[in-house]
Amino acid sequence: MWDIAGQDRFQKLTRAYFSKAKGVVIVCDLNRDGTIDAVRQWKREVTEWAYKTGNPDLPIILLANKSDMMDRSDPQAAFRMGVLMERLCREEHFLAWFMTSARSGECVEDGFTALIEEIMKVCSWMMLPLTVIIAWCSQ
After folding, report:
1. How far apart are CA 102 and CA 109, in angstroms?
2. Which residues lie across from 62 on neighbouring strands?
3. Angle of helix 11-18 relative to helix 35-52, nearest 10 degrees?
4. How confident is the model at residue 107 (pLDDT cuts 50, 70, 90)?
5. CA distance 98 to 56
6. In the structure, what pLDDT confidence band is assigned to residue 138 with cuts at 50, 70 and 90?
7. What residue segments make up the domains of the chain, in order of their start?
8. 24 Cβ contact partners less than 8 Å away, ≥ 6 residues apart
9. How far apart are the C-alpha atoms of 37 and 88, rounded to whole Å?
10. Looking at residues 79-99, what average pLDDT do you find?
């Protein structure tokens, strides 16, 4: 598993880590402006690489992190965020997305389980180990 930090200054270095990836986790901060644009950019870069290397079925999930920091007193805001994330994932063709909290562990295991299950479907003929790329989107 490689954490490539999601920072632009590492962008050229990260492609070296893509070469043996069997799955990708893109992580964004629900509470940070610009995170959606960063997610789109990383998803498109990974998808472009996957097609160029003959791996168009590369499973990619999105973890929308820091759910524990969302304003729980405003259910409308949470609903709007869910709609926004659903739209983003549909438009960018993510396998799935999960609202997570690294602090509490909420839904983190669910996300990785979904990714690994899909990797095993796509790569059932392959032997382990698996390489999974994690991109933290920051702006």
Report:
1. 10
2. 26, 97
3. 50
4. confident
5. 22
6. very low
7. 2-136
8. 46, 58, 59, 60, 61, 132, 133, 134, 135
9. 10
10. 91
pLDDT at position 75 over 80: yes
Is residue 104 classed as helix, strand or coil in its secondary structure? coil
Query: Does domain 2-136 fall into CATH 2.30.42.10?
Result: no
| CA gap 6, 58 in Å, rounded | 18
**Tokens 């964004």 sit on residue:** 28
- Strand, coil or helix: what is 33? coil
- Distance between CA 55 and CA 21 in Å, rounded? 9
Q: Which helix (H) or strand (E) holds 98?
A: strand 96-99
Q: Which helix (H) or strand (E) holds 21?
A: strand 21-29
Angle between the N-to-C axes of helices 75-92 and 35-52, in degrees from 0 to 180, rounded to the nearest 10: 20
Place of tokens 């989107």: 137
